[in-house]
Write a structure and sequence with these properties.
single chain, 230 residues, alpha/beta, Alpha/beta knot, Trp Operon Repressor, Chain A, 2 domains, two-stranded antiparallel ribbon, 36% helix, 19% strand, elongated, binds adenine
């Protein structure tokens, strides 16, 4: 699977993909991540990539020209399944988005900045607008890294134990149950007896109940989905 990320701050994306699972996935040829500097496509003599907004008002707008040139170039090289724009006014990212995108071949991601991108880019190129939460970041880069990470780990072969993705929080609209490892007692704090019982039927039952209780108290919105109320 291939990602093309369009940014004015490529340095911000150097770190996240060069360690751990994302690094290994690239080394093993399961994942390609190409980072493109929008500034390289500016024809402006100062390499500007933004401009004042029409109608006045504070804040600069990312210019249409360098972004359109870069998107057209990439589109002429391959077909994209999705062209995502990272923006706080987008649809909230959920596990279902990542699940479906993990089955695709080519995804382009445009990182927003300043007041955002010229609306015509959104109208004519973007197929999905995504926010990673109801808060504003300085730009879309960190949000893009979140999207790539959440998709990348689902690509078959990326995780050692593929079944672990299926038991993640959210995969069945439930949060994960609590987990413990050795020692069985620390500072007098004990691991629940059932987990040490060796009775796998009981353990499964306990985990399921814990997941349900957690979801009900922490994420009533998800719990409604789980029970089919929504
Ligand atoms: N850019 C700035 N804030 C963002 C957010 N919350 N999600 C996605 N992109 C963003």
């Amino acid at each position: 699977m291939r990602f093309d990320i369009l940014t004015i701050l490529p340095e911000l994306l150097e770190g996240p993909f060069n360690v751990s699972m994302m690094k290994r996935a690239q080394e093993r040829g399961l994942l390609e991540i190409h980072i493109h500097n929008i500034r390289d496509y500016s024809t402006d003599k100062h390499k500007n990539v933004d401009d004042y907004q029409y109608g006045g008002g504070a804040g600069m707008v990312m210019s249409i020209e360098p972004i359109a040139t870069l998107i057209e170039k990439l589109k002429s090289e391959r077909n994209y399944d999705e062209i995502i724009y990272m923006t706080p006014d987008g649809e909230l990212l959920e596990q279902r988005h990542s699940n479906s995108w993990s089955l695709k071949e080519n995804i382009m991601i445009l990182c927003g900045h300043y007041k955002g991108v010229d609306e015509r880019i959104r109208e004519h190129y973007i197929t999905k607008e995504i926010s990673i939460g109801s808060y504003v970041l300085t730009g879309g880069e960190l949000a893009a890294a979140v999207v790539v990470d959440s998709i990348g780990r689902l690509i078959p072969g990326v995780m050692n134990d593929e079944t672990s993705a299926l038991t993640d929080s959210f995969q069945d609209d439930l949060l994960s149950p609590p987990v413990y490892t050795r020692p069985p007692e620390f500072n007098g704090w004990k691991v629940p007896d059932v987990l040490l019982s060796g009775d796998f039927g009981k353990i499964e039952q306990w985990r399921e109940q814990q997941a349900i209780d957690r979801t009900k108290s922490r994420r009533p919105d998800l719990y409604k989905k789980f029970t089919g109320e929504e």
